[in-house]
Fold these 4 entries.
Entry 1:
Amino acid sequence: MGGSIFMLLDCDEQLFMAYKQRSKKGAENILATWLEAESNLQEDPKILGTSLSPNLFLVNEETAKNIAFSTARKYWGHVSTEMQIYFDKYGLDSKFVNERLSAFFYTQKGKDTFFEQLFAQHTIDLERLIWLVFGKRMQIAMPVNELQSIILYKFQDEYLVHMMYKEHASFWHWLFTKKVYSLLIHKPLEQFTFLYEIMGHFEHSVRENCEHVDNFVNNYKAILDKCITHVDKHNASCLAKKQLRLYQIVTHYCLSEGDFNRVKSFITSFEAEWRYSMYALSEKEKVLIAYILFHIANREQQSENVIHYGEYLLEDERINNYAIEILLEYKELLPNRKPTPPAIIKNYQLNYLENLYAILLEHYVKMARYEDGLLLLKEHVLASNKKINSSLVQKNFSSEQLIAIEAYVQQDIALHVNNSLQHIGLSVEEWRRNYRQPNAPYYVVAQSASLHMLNILRVLFVTEQYELFEKLMEIYKKYLLIDDHFESLRMFISAYV
């Protein structure tokens, strides 16, 4: 890295030198020597090798600002020839670019803006810096700079500031996991003010370090569980302790690979432990847990539980009211493609609300609760689409309305095939030729839409909405027919007649 050791903390530099000479083993040996010299640290459980004393890497605000800003200025304060090519594409010449960067990096205002952003986001990279300085989000991949990102977290009056470099990236990820682990072991948990964010960074760094280990999932879950067991034992009840347990539940759910028993037992003990404490579960946390249990019940085909949790989430707009907060903390948990009320042909799994309606309707059908299914279709536009919903609500089954439903379907198809409404007829032809082919880009969309459309048809048939049933059946056969799906509908109807 040559001149890259710049404004590094002493401990980072010593560990980096040892790592370069003797890989991680060399760095671990230094840690062991340092640990022996520490008399006032509590016992190190060695869950992630040897820990570091937080005194070695936590710094005061002034030092944190200087390290972060000086490092950013060194690597991002001027534009390489390679970088200028990207600015040229946005019509920004090199003189202008360098002037703006100087104005940012050599003024107090620039320093304040930089630190505000870093403190709010906990991380900054080149792309975000360009947005800060030029007000532009570059839509093209930037060349990877030597300095990949700077991470910053506050612990009471001190700061963890950590750089991620491109060269020897696995070392910087390893060192970051060491630091977070050491803070969990040696600092009171209540000092963790942004627990979800720092654990998200921790998880990412463990994953980056596990690139040659096939089993990141089991590794990470084991590390996490051991850390949490240790932390639980050594910390009094506090908000961060509850957040850490919630993080554990969400992580086990997201990494569950189909076996949910562990997640369910974590939830049971979590609810029992926190129900009556002064940190009782908030409404948002109850919604988060209900959302996870809803999906587990669906995966395990427990229809009564699916309906119980699904109705709870829809009641009083609970899922809607808390989705954004949950998304901010757990981006992976709620699939968040923008909802599309006009569309009936779509992959329902890509939006948490559309998916919830599709799953709930499926289980209403399984439990023969067709009137509840009809009510769902009438009360929630996203359970079908705008035109189908207004037909049911207004009891409008005129030929114009039914033709409009088909026109909407054709538009859906055109957008999936060519992302354009220019040549709808040609797009529909292409769709009809290809949608059953597993290698077609919209195969998954067709499968998802077919299953949902058939559940709508079952509900409409049993509740005697025959005009709408016939039109949707015609549309289904024309644009979505999948033989084994349709056979199940045919058997359903013949059993019912």
Entry 2:
Amino acid sequence: MTLSDSMVSVNDLVEYRVPPAGFDAVEVDPLREADALVEAQLLDSRVCPLTSTAALLFELRTSLQFDVGNAALLVVRGLRSFGWSTPAVPGALAALTVVSSVPDRRDDSFRMGCEFFPEAQLGVVGDLADFYVLDAEGVGDVPPDYSGADLKRVQGALPTWSSLCSLLQGSSSR
């Protein structure tokens, strides 16, 4: 049985040191193609200094490029730099929608810069990156409505680090 035939948590994929096998290649590869993540929404990010890893969890139901899956995970290993910039908006609950994503392989490292609406930027640099397209269990076909700011309701309709998922597609910068 391959990993793509079984369920795994999103967090387990972050912790894998060797990328799992047995999944289809991505049709549009955000590790190699500019703007492959346009209209995907950044849901969460994690940085672990102990393992030199950064992980970005995306909502794919809004994406222009991906026809399969409802979530995506970008894991950067051998993390050298992680930068985030956004104006503070107290009390606001909003999805950050990718308007630009630019991957680059330079000086023996993987780099990605993303710009978001509303008004945020993210930059990450590491030794290598893995990207996974996921089908997270228990997530409906339509993203939640962020108006009304009922945090529990919104979170219940989104993929999370503990979501069980099937691995549909993947790519590695290795």
Entry 3:
Amino acid sequence: MKISITAATIAGALLASTPVHAVDPASLVAKSSLMQTGTAAADELNRAMGGQRDAVKRMDIYAKFEFSPALRPKLKAVFGNERPFPLVRSAGPKGQVIYTSKLMPHAYLDENGSAFSWSEINSRSVANKAGTTLDTKMSMQSLSVVGTATAAMLENLSGDFKETRGADGIWYGDFKAKLGSLAIRAADAGGTDLKEAVRFEDLAGYTSINRRGKKVDVVYGSSIQSIRFGGERVERANLAIRVVNLPAQAMADMEKELERLQHSGLPDDAQTVVMTKSVLGFAKGLLAKGVSIIVDDISASYRGNTASIKGRIDFDKLVETDFKSPTEFANKIVARLDLRLPVAMVNDVSRAVAGKQVDASAPNAAEQIDTAGKNLAAVVIGKLVNEGYALMEKGELRSTFELKNGKVTFNGKSVAVPSVPAPATAPAP
């Protein structure tokens, strides 16, 4: 799930002076036998699929699959079971097929010093008789990873996926996930005591893939009801974006190409190279055929006020040569985004930043914070309004960001954009 740009901006301002030791996600998985065993299991399963991309047929293969004798002891050591996530196939009403799977609760101390523990994970999928519809629900109560300098804990994860396979072989439908909370703890530099650095609460994400005549629309969205860090709280963050006018036939062709590649017999490394080239070619083709990105909502709330971004991004008559030059590609982007920032939010964020910079033990600390906050807000607001980058309307700073023909404007005022150097010529293989 993505945190909105606005939320990230607010969080960045508030965290600018907060002394929190950097969280390094790589430290949780470096030299991890859990990750290595999981990767080996995924590789064996992928080979067993034989390039099959149909969701229902893949589950039928997995229901009968057994891991290699060499891998089973490792799976048992890490996951507590030689077949950690077994899939059971059973008959349902009206010719339906039901697939159920369960990962039992377990705790594991990795060789890198990280301790993993998880609750029971359940999954249930129901396919119709023809294998063209699939309804899946999954749930997990908790998962924790505790390292020497960082730790993460998530609670109440659930998913609900409803899919229908079209005649073109593409699976359309809705994919929704929820997470009750995600907390990240970190130790101060040189210390070992883990303290909560950031907490996300009530997260939700969704993706919808919908066929519309000869076109396909993809909807992405996410929301976070609370982000807590450094004594501050962003009350809500939201992201809602649509990618529209994707050619349905091009997506079907790409699906066939990927299936052909997986049946090609090429080594994995070679498949990756070819697949990357195919996907990039596919993406370029989509952009050249009139795909648009609609920003329905990127917003965040802080102390009762909400900043937001809305608009759209298009691509003007892209040709092959545009993809060879970052400058030429940028010249074909046509974007218009409406920006709204409450003045009260500027004041609140400025005061919060000032509070991090003033010695709280000073006799007149409150007065210093108040003065510094007001001065910082005045500078920000004054620069934006006096230099014409934004207008002040109904207690908000309002501006329209536009990008066209490589030129950027805010509220109609041009902004200098540094030129992008051309990529260096790649050496011949």
Entry 4:
Amino acid sequence: MALLSGRIRFPAIVVMLATCLACAAAFAQTPAELLIGRWELVSQRRVVDGKGNPDRPVSDQNRSTIDFSTDGTWRILASSHNGSRGTYRWLGPGRIESTTIKAPIPAGNGARRTLSVEIEDRQLTLTVTLSAEELKKSGGQAKPNVSYPQELVVVSTFRRLPG
């Protein structure tokens, strides 16, 4: 009889597990849906020509938030400048293309970049890789006697804000 009850319990457990997985799948969101909302920048890490620096927490003077909307637009509100805004579109899993419409520095207007996107629970990580040429363009006119890295990788970590 114990064997029979063991057989009955096993299918019941399988049915319960399948039900739980089906419920979880019904509430699952795609990365595109998870990106929508308001995020606060909490740290940044820069890797210059392959040499990484530790994550740096964001100071009160450099606080910023980014809002991603369902219409494919983004907006950054920053304490250190007037902010910026632009558009984004998904290129594939974990990658978006961002186009800046209004930047704090006019040379940044029209910049188009590919960003890596990772969303885990209430944390968003955006990673962008910039070449020396892109750095010169986005900083305005190239300055004499200033050396630019060949490659700059910026890893920005955000936390989701309520609302």
